Amino acid sequence: MSRRRQIYEGKAKILYEGPEPGTLIQYFKDDATAFNAQKKGTISGKGVLNNRISEHIFTLLANIGVPTHFIKRLNMREQLIRQVEIIPLEVIVRNVAAGGLATRLGLEEGLQLPRTLIEYTLKDDALGDPMVSEEHIACFGWASQEEMHDIADMAIRVNDFMCGMFAAIGIRLVDFKLEFGRIWDGDFARVILADEISPDNCRLWDMTTNEKLDKDRFRRDLGGEVEAYQEVARRLGLMPEGVDNDVLDLDSHRKKRGK
Ligand code: C5P
Fold first, then answer.
1. What's the mean per-residue pLDDT of the chain?
2. Per-residue pLDDT averaged across 213-219, rounded?
3. Quick check: 92 and 120 in contact, CB under 8 A?
4. Is the pLDDT of residue 258 over 90?
5. Distant-in-sequence, close-in-space partners of 174: CB < 8 Å, separation ≥ 6
6. Is the CB of 48 under 6 A from ligand 1?
């Protein structure tokens, strides 16, 4: 395993060369960062949970016809994915005002937006992922008009599906971030959904208590991060009652928290 060629290391994941050309292995770390990596930490067991949650959501999305890079989960922390040319945009879909939007426009957190809002930021850590408009995207050629059409269309489909999926388990999908990539077939490129969908890149609030079940627990020092991620996995039916927590590598976390 350790001799595999590493292609890229990000804040929460590592990409290794895959077994076949055009494939990669995506490894989910326990590392957590926030505020453009100014805050760093570890959430023991997070990688295992995100791998499983993301597998589940990407599989369901593929079932409704959203093309994704996911091929199969390989083990607790790794999944086999299709290699894509990443489009350098973060696509943020919002249903409820929170986080950056609430701060930027002085909105009260929790305000239901009159319509779903899609925002784009440039994927560039050095610049702090600045927000960009479709005019910037066209001007600098980060994606074509046709690709932007496909991206917005998929983002809305993903949002509609996930709003329903989470509502059914008592969770409000406040907002989330998607990334897309190109797959080349000769001269023709197709856009597919890439990266991951997990409590690391979604805001998920309990519908009755508004309890945060996502990375805001880490960003805002609320504690109970892994328990929140576990709760999402449990409600999605991914952690049957009585699951052996050793399986989720949670022991070290428990010891740290003195349980
Ligand atoms: O911080 P902000 O309110 O803009 O985040 C909107 C959504 O996008 C949140 O769900 C957050 O988790 C996600 N996001 C992300 N990665 C980023 C920025 C935002 O996953 N770099």
1. 93
2. 98
3. yes
4. no
5. 94, 95, 96, 98, 202, 203, 204, 205
6. no
Q: What is the DSSP letter of 244?
A: -
pLDDT of residue 251: 40
Q: Is the CB of 176 under 6 A from ligand 1?
A: yes
Indicate which CATH number applies to the domain containing 202.
3.30.470.20
Three-class SS state of 82: strand
Within a domain: 224: no
31 Cβ below 6 A of ligand 1: no
Residue 259 pLDDT grade (very low, low, confident, very high; cuts 50, 70, 90) = very low
Tell me what pLDDT residue 254 has. Answer: 42
The answer to whether residue 35 is domain-embedded is no
Is 90 exceeded by the pLDDT of residue 3?
Answer: no
| Ligand 1 nearest atom to the CA of residue 175, by list position | 10
C-alpha of residue 92 to centroid of ligand 1, in Å = 7
Residue at token pair 């927590």: 245
- The verdict on the CB of residue 99 being under 6 Å from ligand 1 is yes
185 belongs to a structural domain: yes
Residue 134 lies in domain = 85-206
Buried b (16+ CB within 10 A) or exposed e, 146-167: ebbebbeebbeebbebbbebbe
The answer as to whether 166 is a domain residue is yes
Number of domains in the chain: 1
What's the whole-number mean pLDDT along residues 233-252? 68
Q: Quick one: pLDDT at residue 31? A: 98
What secondary structure does DSSP assign to 48-81, as a single string?
Answer: HHHHHHHHHHHHHHHHTT--BSEEEE-SSSEEEE
CA of 134 to the centre of ligand 1 (A): 19
Pocket lining: 175 vs ligand 1, CB cutoff 6 Å: yes
Closest ligand 1 atom, CA of 36? Answer: 21
Cβ atoms 219, 225 nearer than 8 A? no
